[in-house]
Design a protein that fits this description.
Layout (H helix, E strand, L loop, with lengths): L7 H23 L2 H52 L3 E5 L5 E4 L1 H7 L3 H4 L11 H14 L1 E10 L6 E12 L5 E10 L1 H22 L9 H17 L5 E9 L1 H8 L1 H18 L6 E6 L2 E7 L3 H18 L5 E8 L9 H21 L4 E4 L4
Parallel strand pairs: 9-10
Antiparallel strand pairs: 1-2, 1-5, 3-4, 4-5, 6-8, 6-9, 7-8
Helix pairs in contact: 1-2, 7-11, 8-9, 9-10
C-alpha cells in the first residue's frame, strides 16, 4: 500500500482519536466536563495534525527517494552508453592521468581499462609532443581538435589513425576536474586516401612517362623546361644545360635486326642515362623515336660534357654495330632571359639540336656544343 494513500496511518489516527475521546469522557466524569472534553479535543486535534504532518513528510520522503532512484538510473544509463559505445571515449584527471577507458578505447588501443588506469594519457600516442600541445590548447580555450593522430595497438603492434577532440570537464561548481577525449578510428579512410594517392601517382607517371624506356616523355620535358626557365629568371646566376642525344644509324640497325632488337637498344640506352646522371638533380627524356634529352640543372657546358662522355663510353662498350651516339650540348644564355618562356624553351632545344646535327654530319660518335661554346 502506498504511503501517500495514508492507509495504516489513518486507521492509527482514528484509533487514537477514539482513545483520547474515551479518556476525555473518563476525566469529565471524574473531575470536570470542560476539563475532560477539552483535553480530549486538544489531544484529538494534535493527533490529526501530526497525522497530516507525518503524511506530508513521508510523501516528501517518497518523492525524494524516487528522484534519487531516477538519478541513479539516469547515471547508470549514461555510464552504460559510454562504456559500451563503439566510439573511443576516455577521461583524465587534472594531472592528465586516465580515469575512465571505455570498450571502444580498449579495442582501438589494444589495452584494457585495468592496464591504463592511472597512467598519463601521453603514453597512449605515438607522438607525446603532439598531445602536450593539444592539452595546452585545451588549457587556453577549453577544447581542441586533432584531425589525424597516430597510435600503435599494444596487442598487435598495428598502426591506427584516429581523429581526436578534447574538451575540459567541469563539476557543478564550474571547477576543472579533467578532460574528456572523444576519438574516431579513421584508419580505413587513411588507407583509402593512401590507395587513391598511389593510384594518382601511378596515373601521373603514366601521363609523363615513355612506355618503352621508362624515361619521361616529351610532354613532361616541355613542362620541366618551362619550370626551370621561370626559375632561371629569378636566379639568373644558376647555370642550366641540356644535351640532345641521337642514335646514329638506328634505322639501319632496326631494319636489319628487327623492331624488337631496336626497342631493346633504346631500353638499354635509357638504362645508361639513368645510371650516369645525378638522380636527385638531373632528368632524362625520350624526345621522340631514337632521340633523347638530358636536363641538367646547376650545370655548365663543361659539366654536361663530363656526364655525356660517361654515357658515350658506356654505349660504346655495348658494341651495338653499326650504331653510335651524336650528342649536342647547349647552356641557357643570359640573352634568353627577356624572352617569353615558350620561345626560350624552343630556342634552347634548337641550339642543342643544331649542335647534335653538326656532330652527326661529321660522322657521329662524338659530342658537340652550341655556337659560341
Amino acid at each position: 500500500m502506498l504511503i501517500g494513500k495514508r492507509g495504516w496511518k489513518t486507521s492509527l489516527a482514528y484509533t487514537l482519536v477514539v482513545l483520547f475521546g474515551l479518556c476525555g469522557a473518563f476525566l469529565a466524569h471524574k473531575y470536570h466536563p470542560f476539563l475532560g472534553y477539552g483535553f480530549a479535543a486538544a489531544l484529538a486535534g494534535l493527533c490529526i495534525w501530526l497525522h497530516k504532518q507525518a503524511g506530508t513528510f513521508l510523501e516528501d520522503l517518497q518523492v525524494f527517494s524516487l528522484k534519487q532512484k531516477r538519478l541513479e538510473a539516469k547515471a547508470w544509463y549514461f555510464e552504460s552508453v559510454i562504456t559500451n559505445s563503439g566510439n573511443i571515449i576516455f577521461t583524465t584527471d587534472v594531472e592528465h592521468r586516465i580515469l575512465k577507458f571505455n570498450r571502444g578505447s580498449e579495442r582501438a588501443f589494444g589495452m584494457s581499462q585495468t592496464d591504463v588506469l592511472g597512467k598519463e594519457v601521453h603514453a597512449l600516442f605515438a607522438s607525446p609532443v603532439e598531445i602536450s600541445a593539444l592539452l595546452a590548447r585545451v588549457d587556453e580555450t577549453g577544447s581542441a581538435e586533432a584531425p589525424e593522430l597516430l597510435i600503435k595497438q599494444a596487442d598487435s603492434g598495428e598502426d591506427i589513425w584516429i581523429s581526436l577532440s578534447v574538451a575540459r570537464m567541469l563539476n557543478r561548481d564550474k571547477e576543472v576536474i579533467g578532460e574528456v577525449f572523444n576519438c574516431s578510428n579513421i584508419s580505413k579512410r587513411k588507407h583509402l586516401e593512401s590507395q587513391l594517392h598511389e593510384k594518382n601517382e601511378q596515373l601521373l607517371r603514366l601521363v609523363i612517362t615513355d612506355s618503352l624506356t621508362g624515361l619521361h616523355n616529351v610532354r613532361h620535358l616541355n613542362a620541366e623546361l618551362g619550370r626551370v626557365i621561370r626559375a632561371q629568371k629569378r636566379f639568373p646566376n644558376r647555370p642550366v644545360s641540356i644535351a640532345l642525344i641521337d642514335v646514329d644509324k638506328f634505322k639501319v640497325y632496326n631494319d636489319s635486326k628487327g623492331h624488337q632488337a631496336g626497342d631493346h637498344l633504346l631500353v638499354m640506352l635509357g638504362n645508361i642515362f639513368m645510371s650516369e646522371i645525378r638522380q636527385e638533380m638531373d632528368s632524362a627524356y625520350r624526345y621522340g623515336g631514337d632521340e633523347f634529352v638530358l636536363l641538367l640543372p646547376d650545370t655548365k657546358s663543361e659539366g654536361a660534357k663530363v656526364i655525356c662522355e660517361r654515357i658515350l663510353s658506356a654505349f660504346r662498350r655495348l658494341r651495338v654495330d653499326p650504331t653510335s651516339l651524336s650528342i649536342g650540348i647547349a647552356q641557357y644564355l643570359p640573352s634568353d632571359e627577356g624572352k617569353e618562356v615558350h620561345q626560350a624553351v624552343k630556342e634552347f632545344i634548337q641550339r642543342a639540336d643544331e649542335a647534335m646535327y653538326a656532330v652527326k654530319e661529321q660522322g657521329g660518335d662524338a659530342i658537340g656544343f652550341q655556337r659560341g661554346d
